[in-house]
């Protein structure tokens, strides 16, 4: 089953970045996508800190990430970087733990001062985990998310950025699904033509399938 995993990376109970993540989750669900949330703060702290891969909650979180097609990561900016809580979770992923996945970073910060932290701190980590398809970051300062009695509210410009990101993520997933379908078809065609193909010296079946995908796109 195809789904998006969302990761909330704030240690705070009352959290702006988690609230902004919820907004993005709702926008994704409105586009027909399934979203499954990991609240990093709800993971057992000792298991997280001691990299206890055998702990059921850690296992479940890692498995959820492994099978997701896209990952939305929300973090507060702490000390000019992303939160340590996000880091403890990312550190548990295998080296290619985000390979083939679309990633959307979301962050909130006290001001615009450390906005680039997503590019110089978070993005290199996501890339080193294999993520290649990075959607543009969504950032909101605390002033962009004024507190209300019920929680927070969002300024129009920030809401617009969340909508645009949800559109971009839904579009990217759709394209990925189409490509997968083409690859499956191409592999089927390549297999059906195997006797003739075998006459082509040095051309492997997978190369032929890849060529068919290129032709079809
Ligand atoms: C320990 C700590 C460190 C922070 N460091 C920064 C920082 O370096 N740059 C920044 O823009 N905001 C910083 N902030 C402000 C938070 O990023 C901001 O309030 C954010 O919206 C909090 O998100 P949250 O409510 O999801 O935890 C810091 C806040 C705390 C508590």
- Helix tally? 8
Give the second-level CATH assignment, the architecture of the largest domain.
3-Layer(aba) Sandwich
Q: Indicate the mean pLDDT.
A: 90
Calculate the terminal CA-CA distance, rounded to whole Å.
Answer: 25 Å
**The CATH homology group name of the largest domain:** Flavodoxin domain
Number of strands: 8
Q: What is the general shape?
A: globular
CATH first level of the largest domain: Alpha Beta
Strand content: 15-25%
Order of helices and strands: EHEHHEHEHEEEEHHH
- Domain count: the total is 2
**Bound chemical compounds:** flavin mononucleotide
Rg from Cα = 20 Å
Biggest sheet, open or closed, and with what strands and sense? 6 strands, parallel
What fold name goes in the CATH topology slot of the largest domain?
A: Rossmann fold
Q: Provide the helix percentage.
A: 40-55%
Overall SS class = alpha/beta
Low-pLDDT runs of 5+ residues are 200-217
Explain the overall architecture.
Belongs to the SsuE family. This is NADPH-dependent FMN reductase. This protein folds into 2 domains: 162 residues, Rossmann fold (3-Layer(aba) Sandwich); 40 residues, no CATH class. The chain is α/β, with parallel strands linked by helices and 217 residues long. 47% of the residues lie in helices and 16% in strands. Helix 1 packs across helix 6 and helix 6 packs across helix 8. It binds flavin mononucleotide.
């Amino acid at each position: 089953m195809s789904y998006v995993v969302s990761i909330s990376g704030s240690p705070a109970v009352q959290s702006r970045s988690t609230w902004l993540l919820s907004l993005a989750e709702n926008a994704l669900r409105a586009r027909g996508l399934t979203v499954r949330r990991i609240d990093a703060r709800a993971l057992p702290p000792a298991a997280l800190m001691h990299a206890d891969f055998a702990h059921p909650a850690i296992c479940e979180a890692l498995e959820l990430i492994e099978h997701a097609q896209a990952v939305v990561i929300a973090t507060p900016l702490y000390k000019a970087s992303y939160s340590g809580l996000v880091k403890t979770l990312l550190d548990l992923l295998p080296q290619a733990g985000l390979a083939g996945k679309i990633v959307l970073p979301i962050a909130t910060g006290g001001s615009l001062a450390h906005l680039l932290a997503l590019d110089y701190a978070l993005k290199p980590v996501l890339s080193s985990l294999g993520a290649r398809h990075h959607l543009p970051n969504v950032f909101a300062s605390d002033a962009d998310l004024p507190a209300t009695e019920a929680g927070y509210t969002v300024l129009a410009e920030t809401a617009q950025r969340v909508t645009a990101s949800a559109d971009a993520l839904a579009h990217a997933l759709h394209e990925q699904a189409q490509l997968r379908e083409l690859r499956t078809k191409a592999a089927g065609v390549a297999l059906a033509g195997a006797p003739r193909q075998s006459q082509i010296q040095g051309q492997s079946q997978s190369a032929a399938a890849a060529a068919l995908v290129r032709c079809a796109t």
